[in-house]
Amino acid sequence: MTSPFRSAQGRSEDRAIKRQALLTAAVRLFNERGFHATSLDEVATSVGVTKPLVYHYLGNKDQVLLECVSFGLAQLREVAEAARAVPGRGIDRLKAFLRRYAEVVMGDFGRCVIRTSDEMLTADSRARFRAAKREMDAAMREMLEAAVADGSVRIADVRLTAFTIAGALNWSARWHNDDAGQSRAETARDMVDILCAGLEPR
Amino acid sequence: MTSPFRSAQGRSEDRAIKRQALLTAAVRLFNERGFHATSLDEVATSVGVTKPLVYHYLGNKDQVLLECVSFGLAQLREVAEAARAVPGRGIDRLKAFLRRYAEVVMGDFGRCVIRTSDEMLTADSRARFRAAKREMDAAMREMLEAAVADGSVRIADVRLTAFTIAGALNWSARWHNDDAGQSRAETARDMVDILCAGLEPR
DNA sequence: ATTGACATATACTCATGAGTAACTCAATGA
DNA sequence: TCATTGAGTTACTCATGAGTATATGTCAAT
Fold first, then answer.
1. How far is B1 from chain A (nearest CA, A)?
2. How distant is C1' of D27 from CA of A195, in Å?
3. In sequence order, which residues have a C-beta less than 8 Å from that of residue A26 and are 6 or more positions away?
C-alpha cells in the first residue's frame, strides 16, 4: 500500500507514466493512420485528455514524432549492444542481432522508425534522426565485417548486404500482424534463417 | 515536320503528353517530399501551370496518387509477364523477375508504390491499391513455387520467403540514389545474387 | 489560510491547402 | 462568321489542424 500523499518522487514518476502513455498513444496512431493523417487532437482524445496537455507533456508535433523514433532507435541500439555480448562465432552474434532487430521493428516504436521518412521531420530533428539511423547501419556493417573476419560468413559487398538484410527485416514492419500468423519471434527467426542461408561458406 | 494544324488525333496525343508530364511531376514531388507534404499547387507550379489544370487533367489529389501507384504497379505487372517468358530453369526466371522488379522499384513510379501506404488513399482507391499489391505478391509466390517445383531452389516457407525477398528489394526504393554509387541495374543484380545464394540447393 | 507550482480544460488564432466557380482566350468545326 | 469546346487562369470558399492565451482547479509546502 502506498500512501495517498505522494512524495515529490511519486509525482515525478506519475508524470513519467503519463508521458509514456501519451507517447504510446501517439505512436500507435501514427502507425495506424500515418503521421500526417493523425492530429494531436486525436492523440489526446484517444487517452481521454485534450490537446494542450499533449503540448504540456511532449511538445509540438515534430517533437512528438522525434521522441517516438528516438525511442525506437534506442531500442535498436540496445539490441546491438546486447548482441555484441553473445558468445560464439561472428555469425552467431550476427544472427542474434538480426533476430532481435526484427522483433523491435515489428513493435510499436520500431515500426514508427521504419515508417517515418526524413521529410516528415523539421530540418533539425531530421539531422538527428538520420544520424541515429546511420549509427544503426554502421552497427550492422560492423557485425557483418566481424563475421567475415572470423570466417563464419562470406560476403562480397558488405554495404549492399547490410542494406539488403536491413530492408528485408524492416519490411516486416509493414506486413507483420500480431493477431495473425506467426509471432514476432517466430517470424524473426525464420526470416533470419532465410537471409543467412546464403552467407555461410560452402 | 508536323503540320501546325493538329488533327483530332494530334490533339489527343498532345493531351496525353501533358497529362503524363503532370503525372511525372507529381510522382517526383511525392517521392521527394512525401505525399501529404506536397500540395497540388506545387505540382502545378513545378510544371509552370496552375492548380485547376491539375484537376482538369488528373482529378483530385487522391486520384493523382492512385494514378501514380497504378502506373508503378502496371510496370511491375509487365515485369512479371516478361519474366514468365524467360527460358531456363525456374530460378532463372525468378532471378530475371527479381532483377527487373528491383529496377522498377528504384524508378519514379515504383518508388511511389513502395512509399505509399494504404491510409493515404480513400477507402475506394485503397481497395484497388491493395488488390494490385496482392496480385504482385501472388506473382512472386507463383514464381517461387515454380522454382521449387522444378527443383532449382529449396524453400521452407514460400510466403515468408516472398515477403523477405520483396522487402529487401523494396527497401532499395528508400536508399538507392541514381547519382551516387552503382546504377540501378548493378544494384539489382547484386541484391538478387545475395538473396538467391541461400535458395539454391547444396 | 496563503502561495505557488503544476495539471488540465476552454476557447480561441492563424496558416495552409483542397477543391471550385467563373472567367478569358484560342482553335475547330458547322 | 458564329457557336462550341477545351485549355488555362484568377480569385475565391471552406475545412482542418497546429499551436497558444488564458482560465480553473488541486495539491503540497509554508
1. 45
2. 57
3. A38, A43, A54, A58, A64, A65, A68
Cβ atoms A113, A105 nearer than 8 A: yes
The single residue listed with the C-alpha cell 538480426 is A98
Partner-chain contact B172 A169, CB within 8 Å? no
Give the whole-angstrom CA distance, residue B92 versus residue B86: 7
pTM metric for this prediction: 0.93
How many Cβ pairs within 8 Å bridge chains A and B? 104
Task: Report how far residue A27's alpha carbon sits from residue A30's, in angstroms, rounded to the nearest whole number.
Answer: 5
Angle, helices A90-105 vs A158-175, to 10°: value is 30
pLDDT digits over A139-168, tens only? Answer: 999 999 999 999 999 999 999 999 999 999
- Reduced to 3 states, what is the DSSP secondary structure of residue A53? helix
pLDDT at A18 over 60: yes
Nearest nt to the CA of B14 via C1' is: D7
Q: Cβ-count burial of A9 within 10 angstroms (0-12 exposed, 13-18 middle, 19+ buried)?
A: exposed
Q: Is the pLDDT of residue A2 over 60?
A: no
Nucleotide D12 C1' to residue B57 CA (A): 21
pLDDT of residue B200: 84
Whether chain A has a CB inside 8 Å of the CB on B174: the answer is yes
Q: Which residue has the cell 565485417?
A: A145
Pick from A95, A32, A101: nearest CA to A73: A101
| Helices within B85-183 (DSSP H only) | 90-105, 108-115, 123-149, 158-175
The shares of helix, strand and coil residues in chain A, as percent rounded to the nearest 5, are 75, 0, 25
Euclidean distance between CA atoms B71 and B75, whole angstroms: 6
What stretches of chain A adopt beta strand conformation (E)? none
B40 strand C contact, CB < 7 Å: yes
Measured CA to CA in angstroms, residue B158 lies from A4, B190, B197 at distances of 57, 22, 16
